[in-house]
Design brief:
CATH architecture of the largest domain: 3-Layer(aba) Sandwich
Number of strands: 29
Helix content: 25-40%
Number of helices: 21
CATH superfamily of the largest domain: P-loop containing nucleotide triphosphate hydrolases
Bound molecules: adenosine-5'-diphosphate, zinc ion
Strand order of the largest sheet: 10-11-9-12-13-8-14
Strand content: 15-25%
Structural class: alpha/beta
Length: 734
């Protein structure tokens, strides 16, 4: 007789790709792919997911599956197929990919994994009127005033403590009624939604007539539901992209299929989330790593049970267990946070396109500044381009001036604010309007340097200069180490001429206060938002008009929809541009476009000022002109010349060790192997020190593979655990 077997991906914390094992299916156990099971592995009992049935039967004795953890398959067939794609593309274990699809509370709680309600789930009391209560309403039973009101409220359909209180009744009275048999008490689970997402956004544009551009985009998407087609919805902020997502989602739901909406960072995209909740209510589930394990489990469970069929979240929302996915949206598709920086190192947008091919769902990527790789795919016909060229309501994009900082220096202006920016700031504040000043460096100064001997104060663990903060401390922006006091004499030569150089947000804040002494100025950066909720508080102070100027980092590039902001000033547009990375120009263009988009969102219009030492650079010129196409052409030209994506793909191999020789030896050895193995199929670049050559006491090195299918080279060498593998990295600045 033949035995049936199951291939199981086990969650055992093993490394290496081969972590699926065959087990016998005991008679009487009805297994299906996607089932969560308990199996023995060595001496241990571990959890695992059934990948397939009746795989290649191996001659040796097989152990049987110990138990089924939950009667329903927890992963759908399309999810298992997507896990297979991720394992293959990103060269990670199938078990890692499968595990990423389960809520952490479930995947980690082996071996006694139970699919109960989440730990700590809250319940609330609910009440209903009993038949005896209905009779009592017509008199004959003596009731206190509060009890009578409560009974009437129950008769009218009141249900929760809140309902009762609203009607003038109370839980205490309802319990008294229950004791007398006039009412019944029950319990129900309370859905835990973090307060940030309970924003009640009014759904103003639900019934608005679609603009012609929106209408044709929608028609194309709806025609493609079920075909696996991918789209690039290319439109500036406020061009109506979100409204297109909402309407495409409604159409998908009407066909009985589910929707997944990916957003890069849920806190910074709270408005998009709120609009989905406003339109689809309880059908929305939120899946995001900022939720507690219990909250995530609850939301996941609502999707599995079919209660929620609109899933919104960051990366991992793509793995929601919807029975049928009809549409996946990836908003702000260019954001690097779509790439997971730990195993499995998948890119959620690229994986969404793969899910389209697997399950036939339509995939819509939205952005004002798409990755040039995405733009290239659209131009080549792999994606359909859907342009939304104008802002809804005829708002113009802010005219932007480029200020050459070299000329400022020549004219003797040593301030961080150019003459033009200072004047514009003063004018803005004097007219009762608001301004945003952007700089992506925290702190006051970026380096503390001795003018006599050149000594630079550095973090001993990372070997990079400490940043000077206004409270007098030195902070390492790489590992967070702090030295409480900056030296007032050079530790190397004893000279008192030790100075702070470079510009951070704190210094800009100070100079702004000096330039507009009567304005209220606030600062928003990672130092300022340590306290939870201060991002929202800063936004609120600007929205209410309490503050006039906000100085900050990237954090204010998103979500700040402030109609009274008429000036956006970029203090130094070059900080990212000067980084040695293949995406430096692209990130610069994206960031500048995003920040400039904060200006002129109201009737008063707006303007932008970009300060730069590189006024001729194509990324800066194109950002000032709001000209994506010119930027993309120039960028793609450079990418083509060097074989960077989309003209070649990359694999980044990184390693680290406490001793420099260890790292050097290890990387020289792998480099030689790879060169032999590559045999002309890919270039092997390096070995080189990583951009963060030292971090928290470890030396770091990297090797880069570049070619058409560089990951194939990895099949020909055996990599040790000391290397991390990043296929399609979004940056080489590890
Ligand atoms: P984006 O996602 O591109 O930033 P939104 O969809 O948020 O754009 O649209 C910008 C603003 O215009 C929103 O306030 C939205 O409610 C409104 N809006 C969108 N489409 C329409 C329309 N067809 N008619 C009127 N208002 C619209
Ligand atoms: Zn010195
Ligand atoms: Zn450090």
């Amino acid at each position: 007789m033949t035995h049936r077997t199951a291939e199981v991906a086990v969650f055992a914390g093993l490394r290496g790709p081969a972590r699926t094992f065959s087990y016998l299916i005991p008679s009487g156990l009805d297994l299906e792919p996607g089932h969560l099971v308990r199996v023995g592995l060595g001496q241990r009992a571990v959890a695992g997911v059934v990948i397939s049935l009746d795989g290649a039967v191996v001659a040796r004795e097989l152990r049987p599956v110990d138990a089924l953890v939950h009667p329903l398959p927890l992963l759908r067939p399309h999810q298992l197929a997507l896990a297979g794609w991720i394992a293959e593309r990103y060269r990670c274990g199938l078990a890692d990919a499968v595990r990423a699809m389960l809520p952490p509370a479930l995947a980690s709680r082996a071996p006694n994994t139970k699919l109960g309600t989440a730990r700590g789930e809250r319940t609330e009391a609910i009440f209903a009127i009993a038949p005896a209560g209905k009779e009592a309403m017509s008199g004959g039973v003596r009731l206190g005033a509060r009890q009578l009101v409560t009974l009437r409220a129950l008769a009218a359909g009141a249900f929760t403590a809140r309902d009762l209180a609203d009607a003038g009744g109370s839980t205490v009275a309802a319990r008294a009624l229950a004791r007398r048999g006039l009412a019944v008490e029950g319990k129900r689970a309370v859905r835990r939604i973090p307060a940030e997402f309970a924003l009640a956004e009014e759904d103003l544009s639900r019934d608005a007539i679609a603009t012609p551009a929106q209408a044709s985009a929608l028609a194309a998407i709806i025609a493609a539901l079920g075909t696996g087609r991918g789209f690039l919805l290319h439109g500036v902020t406020a061009s109506g992209k979100t409204e297109v997502y909402l309407r495409a989602a409604a159409e998908t739901l009407a066909r009985g299929e589910g929707v997944i909406v990916l957003v890069p960072e849920i806190i910074l995209t709270a408005q998009v989330v709120a609009r989905f909740i406003a339109r689809f209510g309880d059908r929305v589930a939120l899946l995001h790593s900022a939720l507690s394990a219990g909250e995530r489990f609850d939301e996941w469970r609502r999707v599995l049970d079919g209660v929620a069929d609109v899933v919104i979240g960051s990366r991992s929302a793509l793995f929601a267990p919807l029975e049928r996915v009809g549409l996946v949206v990836a908003d702000e598709e260019q954001e690097p946070s779509y790439k997971q920086e730990s195993d499995p190192r998948y890119h959620a947008v690229d994986a969404a396109l793969a899910l389209g091919r697997i399950s036939g769902c339509a995939v819509v990527l939205g952005s004002a500044t798409p990755r040039v790789t995405t733009y290239h795919a659209a131009r080549a016909g792999a994606l359909t381009m859907l342009p939304l060229p104008e802002r809804v309501g005829e708002l113009a994009l802010p005219p932007t001036t480029v200020v050459d900082l070299r000329l400022e220096l020549q004219s003797g202006n040593r301030s961080t604010l150019s003459q033009a920016l200072r004047a514009a700031l003063q004018h803005t504040v004097a007219s009762g309007e608001q301004a945003i000043l952007y700089l992506n460096r925290r702190g006051f100064a970026t380096v503390v340097l001795c003018r006599d001997c050149g000594f630079v104060a550095k973090c001993p663990a990372c070997d990079i200069p400490y940043a000077y903060h206004l409270d007098g401390s030195l902070v390492c922006h790489r590992c967070g180490r702090r030295a409480p006091r900056a030296p007032d004499r050079c530790p190397a030569c004893g000279s008192p001429r030790i100075r702070q150089l470079g510009v951070g947000t704190q210094r800009v804040e100070e100079e702004v206060r000096a330039a507009v002494p009567r304005a209220k100025v606030i600062r928003l950066d990672r130092d300022a938002v340590r306290a939870k909720g201060s991002h929202a508080a800063a936004y609120e102070r600007m929205r209410s008009g309490d503050a006039q100027v906000i100085v900050g980092t990237q954090m204010l590039a998103k979500g700040f929809d402030l109609p009274r902001v008429t000036l956006v000033g970029v203090v130094n547009a070059d900080t990212v541009l000067n980084l040695p990375d293949f995406t430096a120009a692209e990130r610069t263009f994206q960031l500048l476009t995003q920040v400039l988009g904060r200006s002129g969102r109201g009737a008063a219009g707006g303007r932008g000022i970009l300060q730069t030492y590189l006024p001729e650079h194509y990324a800066i010129r194109a950002a000032a002109a709001h000209d994506y196409l010119t930027f993309a052409e120039a960028e793609l030209e450079g990418r083509r010349r060097f074989g960077y994506p989309p003209f070649g793909r990359l694999v980044l191999l990184s390693t680290q060790a406490k001793k420099l020789e260890t790292v050097e030896h290890r990387s020289a050895e792998l480099f030689e192997w790879l060169r032999e193995a590559a045999a002309g199929d890919a270039e092997v670049l390096g070995p080189a020190p990583a951009f963060a050559a030292k971090r928290a006491g470890s030396y770091r090195a990297q090797i880069v593979l570049r070619g058409a299918r560089p990951e194939d080279v990895l099949d020909r060498v055996s990599l040790s655990d000391e290397w991390t593998v990043d296929v399609d990295p979004v940056t080489l600045l590890g």
